[in-house]
UniProtKB/TrEMBL annotation:
<keyword id="KW-1003">Cell membrane</keyword>
<dbReference type="InterPro" id="IPR019594">
    <property type="entry name" value="Glu/Gly-bd"/>
</dbReference>
<keyword id="KW-0406">Ion transport</keyword>
<dbReference type="InterPro" id="IPR001508">
    <property type="entry name" value="Iono_Glu_rcpt_met"/>
</dbReference>
<feature type="binding site">
    <location>
        <position position="479"/>
    </location>
    <ligand>
        <name>L-glutamate</name>
    </ligand>
</feature>
<dbReference type="InterPro" id="IPR028082">
    <property type="entry name" value="Peripla_BP_I"/>
</dbReference>
<keyword id="KW-1133">Transmembrane helix</keyword>
<keyword id="KW-0813">Transport</keyword>
<dbReference type="InterPro" id="IPR015683">
    <property type="entry name" value="Ionotropic_Glu_rcpt"/>
</dbReference>
<feature type="transmembrane region" description="Helical">
    <location>
        <begin position="523"/>
        <end position="542"/>
    </location>
</feature>
<keyword id="KW-1015">Disulfide bond</keyword>
<keyword id="KW-0325">Glycoprotein</keyword>
<feature type="binding site">
    <location>
        <position position="484"/>
    </location>
    <ligand>
        <name>L-glutamate</name>
    </ligand>
</feature>
<keyword id="KW-0675">Receptor</keyword>
<feature type="binding site">
    <location>
        <position position="649"/>
    </location>
    <ligand>
        <name>L-glutamate</name>
    </ligand>
</feature>
<feature type="domain" description="Ionotropic glutamate receptor C-terminal">
    <location>
        <begin position="399"/>
        <end position="796"/>
    </location>
</feature>
<keyword id="KW-0407">Ion channel</keyword>
Length: 910
């Protein structure tokens, strides 16, 4: 009996099996056991012990019929197999390994396959349930942690072979490193955890995990060989718990062995496996001996006699005898391939069922256990699900960690949105999530950078998060760059060929209601006004003193229809109306006056034509005042400062272009000063000027002096704070600038795009998300969904300002610049109203006509007419008295300007 250190359960089980044989004489067995124990890592001492015991048995003339091997794995197991193979000793092994894993027994002859047997222990079969769970639940990532009760060395490649699941298989760390181990696994984008071990190990692992790792986007599956209940101090968790169940038909035998022979060690399944295996192997040897099939001339050689080629040839059919044993098993029957091409070794095991339960733990106590189904131990058996809905609830939701940089309209904060963000990229990710079927949690990267590499090759921003496995997806207006593709992966572009453009403040044309007056300078307006008054005065003088004027020849022009006397008022009116399309009206009659009028007309024509032309040019030039129209214009001037965002792809572009120019200069200088060149070759390089432009070198230096803004908001603020004396231009991605122009009426996009590059979604290097997202993006492109998103966020955006477009201004002069004309009209109307009131007042109270009421009567006595009640019209006066005398008529206080018609023949004498 060969066992390894620390496998005490095998020792106990074998002792119980020997005790069982002794107490059951009907079995017809008498066993003489020789014990050898070795270290899993020390093959030399184990081999010496084996050879020593074997040599002792041969010297005592009692060679072994059977080598019972319960070593698990490692060099101890390999040493035992090499020993039995070389010396031809019939062996029944309980070591770990499937077909092809037993390297020493890999290429056995048919004869040797008959007596070199291996039966896989339960701990070698139980991990296969992980494969069945992953296939059923379609799990894409897994971390498999195990303790020393399981051996997974040979499972690293075989367990999840041909299954597209990213997985890590590792031993459970010690107390000090266990929490950090789980944290590192989480950073590897793993949210499905499988724990293989004792209940004590499982408890330690669960209690080392953070509370947040038991949320809906995580799934925990604990698998043990023990049959006790799960207990752990976890605040709130629902865990899938798997443990073995014994065969119902063997429960009575199991109870009897436990109580009668005291086989109560845990895990029971392993103890009873060793018990059944030992008993079955011993009975098989007994049956061979009783049947006479054991060779009578059995040849044995010692370790010293073995030379590598003299292995004894035996015809012992231990495999058939092992299969034909009818002794009932204690925990579960043995599954043995009985024919076909399937070999015995690596395909033989003890059959048992695993009970699958969902255990809910609240505040450290198990509050509920629900049965989900069973799994029958096998190499490829599926799980038998009893509660499909419940088991799906235990699946970890596919929740990816998304890191982003806020930049409108791709990503914008919105507290009312489901994820706290909105924008073009959020809509895009939601559409991809509908196709790929996942959920996500989104965070803003701390430094606000997409990712740049420093001189030491270290990255920051989203790229750093992806490299450190802290993020699954990098989302935003992230440019595809060659150096980024060396450390992360990009999907197919979702936004093609976005270039760098220039954003500046929109030139504001100063508007004034009286802008039409600013066309001519103030001294010109004063001169025109002086000319107006002087010409009017001169025309009045000429008309007054010319003998041919109307006022001096009234009789001559008495038959003319138009009789205009050019007094000072008429002269002012004539000169004013002559400047309008209405015209001045009737011209003076005298030739000298007409010459003055013609001269004024010519002067007015020139002034009006000059004013009209200058007004049109003045308004046009004010609208076309754009200082910069391209990148070349920007690089050739020093008045306007300019810079890209710090850490942006635009900054990287200008920095690299400057570096390239510097390298070109060094190459040119080295070529020009190369003494190894011949005179003819040097003459071909002889130029006075440096042949390569240093535009970007100067621009990069100007950018550093201007200072690079750290955010788009800061850049916009610098543009708005700039003046005509010291402007500022921002260089950035055209999509960002286009959106800023749409939502801000005081900004404009200048020049054509350059250095065009695509935008794509970033994922971890080697991530399966790349292919999944590629297919989804291509589907969206075919359905024109991305075009609709562009239309929504760059044309139909709710926050877009309705700005006055430059094209609208070209249709005519705005009211802001010509509105003063309407004010002139209102002022003129107001002055006319005031003048009307003045005229009415002057007429009524200062220059009214006096009307006299006269009554006519005949005085018979005096033979004349008496006039009485004479008074001015409209004014009540004291009655005047008319005195009558024999000498005639006397009138007092007779004041009148107009006499009535019936007094026109009255000739008074005073």
């Amino acid at each position: 009996f060969v066992n390894e250190v620390d496998n005490n359960l095998a020792n106990v089980a074998v002792e119980v099996a020997l005790n069982y044989v002794k107490k059951n004489p009907q079995l017809g067995l008498s066993v003489d056991m020789m014990y050898v124990e070795g270290n899993r890592t020390d093959s030399k001492d184990l081999l010496q012990a084996l050879c020593s015991k074997y040599g002792q048995s041969l010297s005592e003339n009692r060679p072994p019929h059977l080598l019972l091997d319960t070593t698990l794995t490692g060099v101890s197991s390999e040493t035992v197999k090499s020993f039995s193979l070389a010396l031809g000793i019939p062996t029944v092994s309980a070591s770990f390994g499937q077909e092809g894993d037993l390297r020493q027994w890999r290429d056995l002859t048919p004869t040797k396959r008959g007596y070199l047997l291996q039966v896989m222990p339960p701990a070698d079969m139980i991990p296969q349930v992980i494969r069945s769970i992953i296939i059923y639940m379609n799990i894409t990532n897994a971390a498999i942690l195990y303790d020393n009760t399981f051996v997974m060395d040979h499972k690293y490649k075989a367990l999840l072979q041909n299954i597209p699941t990213r997985h890590v298989i590792t031993t459970i760390a010690d107390d000090r490193d266990r929490a950090s181990q789980i944290e590192k696994l989480r950073n590897l984008d793993i949210n499905n955890f499988f724990i293989l071990g004792s209940l004590a190990s499982i408890k330690q692992v669960l209690e080392s995990a953070k509370n947040e790792y038991f949320e809906r986007n995580f799934a925990w599956h604990v698998i043990t060989q023990e049959q006790k209940d799960l207990m752990c101090n976890v605040e709130n968790a629902t865990i899938m718990f798997l443990r073995p169940m014994s065969d119902s038909s063997s429960k009575d035998r199991l109870g009897s062995i436990r109580t009668t022979y005291n086989l109560k060690q845990e895990p029971q399944i392993t103890g009873f496996f060793y018990f059944d295996l030992t008993l079955r192997a011993l009975i098989a040897i007994k049956n061979i001996l009783q049947s006479g099939s054991w060779p009578s001339n059995m040849k044995y050689i010692t370790c010293e006699d073995y030379d590598g080629t003299n292995t004894p040839n035996h015809t012992i059919d231990l495999k058939t005898a092992f299969i034909e044993v009818t002794e009932p098993t204690t925990f579960g029957p043995f599954e043995i391939p009985k024919g076909g091409k399937m070999q015995f070794n690596g395909n033989t095991y003890m059959k048992f069922d695993m009970d699958i339960n969902a255990v809910s733990i609240r505040s450290g106590a198990s509050v509920n256990t629900r049965s989900l189904g069973t799994w029958e131990a096998s190499l490829n058996a599926p799980i038998n699900v009893a509660n499909e809905a419940e088991i799906k609830n235990l699946t970890a939701d596919v929740v990816y960690r998304v890191y982003t940089v806020v930049q409108a309209p791709f990503i914008m904060r919105d507290p009312t949105a489901p994820k706290g963000f909105k924008g073009y990229c959020i809509d895009l990710l939601n559409k991809i999530a509908e196709i790929v079927e996942f959920d996500y949690e989104i965070r803003e990267v701390e430094d606000g950078k997409f990712g740049n590499m420093n001189e030491n090759g270290e990255w920051n921003g989203i790229v750093r998060k992806l490299i450190d496995k802290q993020a699954d997806i990098g989302l935003g207006s992230m440019s595809v760059m060659a150096e980024r593709e060396t450390v992360i992966d990009f999907t197919v572009p979702y936004y093609d060929l976005v270039g760098i453009s220039i954003m500046m403040q929109l030139p504001s044309t100063p508007s004034s209601l009286f802008k039409f007056l600013t066309v001519l300078e103030t001294n010109v307006w004063l001169c025109i006004l002086a000319a107006y008054f002087f010409t009017s005065f001169l025309m009045w003088i000429f008309d007054r003193y010319s003998p041919y004027s109307y006022q001096n020849n009234r009789e001559k022009y008495k038959n003319d229809d138009e009789k205009r006397e050019f007094n000072i008022k008429e002269c002012l009116w004539f000169c004013m109306t002559s400047l309008t399309p209405q015209g001045g009206g009737e011209a003076p009659k005298n030739l000298s006056g007409r010459l003055v009028a013609a001269t004024w007309w010519l002067f007015g024509f020139i002034i009006i034509a000059s004013y009209t032309a200058n007004l049109a040019a003045f308004l046009t030039v004010s609208r076309l005042d754009t200082p910069v129209e391209s990148l070349d214009d920007l690089s050739k001037q020093y008045k306007i400062l300019y810079a890209p965002l710090n850490g942006s792809s635009a900054m990287t572009y200008f920095q690299r272009m400057a570096d390239i120019e510097a390298k070109f200069y060094e190459i040119w200088k080295e070529m020009s000063l190369n003494d190894s060149l011949t005179a003819v070759e040097r003459s071909k390089l002889a130029v006075w000027d440096y042949p390569v432009s240093d535009k970007y070198t100067k621009m990069w230096q100007a950018m550093l002096e201007a200072g690079l803004p750290n955010s788009l908001e800061e850049a916009v603020q610098r543009i708005r704070n700039s003046t005509s004396a010291s402007g500022f231009a921002f260089l950035g991605d055209a999509t960002d600038i286009r959106y800023q122009v749409l939502t801000n009426c005081d900004l404009q996009m200048v020049g054509e795009e350059f250095s065009r590059k695509p935008y794509a979604i970033a994922v971890q290097q080697g991530s399966p998300l790349k292919d999944q997202f590629n297919n989804a993006i291509l589907m969206l492109l075919n359905r024109r969904e991305l075009e609709k998103l562009k239309e929504q966020w760059w044309k139909n955006d709710d926050v877009q300002n309705k700005c006055e477009k430059p094209d609208d201004q070209s249709d005519g002069i705005s009211i802001q610049n010509i509105g003063g004309v309407f004010i002139v009209i209102f002022v003129g109307i107001g002055m006319a109203c005031i003048t009307l009131l003045f005229e009415f007042w002057y007429y009524k109270y200062r220059n009214n006509s006096k009307v006299i009421d006269v009554a006519e009567s005949t005085d018979q006595q005096h033979g004349g007419t008496i006039v009485k009640n004479v008074r001015p019209a409209g004014k009540l006066m004291k009655q005047d008295s008319l005195k009558d005398s024999t000498k005639g008529h006397n009138y007092q206080n007779l004041r009148t300007r107009t006499l009535m018609p019936n007094l026109s023949k009255f000739q008074p004498r005073f």
